[in-house]
Amino acid sequence: MSTFKEYSFQDYKEVYKRIDAIITSLGYKYYLIGANARDIHLYRAGLRPTRGTADIDFAVMIPSEVDYNNFMKQIIENGFQETNHQYRVIYIDSNTVVDILPYGKIAQEYTLNFNARDIELSVLGFEEVGNDSQEFKLEGGFSIPISSAHGLIILKLISWNERKERNKDLKDIRSLLDAAWALYQDELYKEDSEHFDLLDADNFDVHKTAAKIMGRKMKPLLDQCKPLNKAIRSILEIEIANPSLMTAEMSIHHDTEIVIGLLENLLAGIKGE
Questions:
Q1: Are the beta carbons of 144 and 135 closer than 8 angstroms?
Q2: What is the pLDDT of residue 115?
Q3: Is 80 exceeded by the pLDDT of residue 72?
Q4: Helix (H, G, I), strand (E, B) or coil at 93
Q5: Segment holding 100, helix H or strand E
Q6: Domains of the chain, with CATH numbers?
Q7: Any idea what the Cα angle at residue 16 is, between residues 48 and 89, rounded to 5°?
Q8: pTM of the entire structure?
Q9: Residue 258 contacts by C-beta under 8 Å, 6 or more apart in sequence?
């Protein structure tokens, strides 16, 4: 069993508290995404982190660019410093990089345009995943909203699809799929489980079953947004039909057939099977 100290998120409590205080004072909704959120789910599953992280990523629902600029101004006034990226700051005391990605009405066609530096960032899926966020209690009683494991897979599939050089997104997806059985097995065996039918499957496999549960959990989020639903289904359907870089990067010791099996069951769950 891995210990709490092996995970990235345990080092950043002070940063979380500062960001939380500012966002709460403004009445905005936010949640943790990225590698810190990934590590929290691996921790819950009792698995070691697959890679380290040097930064923290937050998604924040903000109405307009003016509101975002005012929000970032408050961040700078409370222990952070600016960087060359409009959405990125550094917590001075620990030199921690923090990305703050706004979503909601501020985005146009699910895209953020930081015109000052000609940067575009997709926020497709941020609102739907944010509506499904969960609370995670850190040591000392402080809690922080985080993306669900299935929500994080949605965000990482979109992120990789738009920037295919981001192989770390694929490795994170694999690690979350590997953790899925540990995350969902108690839920599966409950008498009133909505996934109880999966236990009757021929050639029952715990990892494929967990991937299908993951897909079923993704379905309600995807059903809220047609472009998001179409994008996620298309990514998976194309990869399953013609395995490529995605499958290769998600493979461990060339277990490509296992990866395809996981993706097939993920897609089946999304389709409600």
A1: yes
A2: 59
A3: yes
A4: coil
A5: strand 96-103
A6: 4-147 (3.30.460.10), 158-270 (no CATH)
A7: 100
A8: 0.92
A9: 207, 251
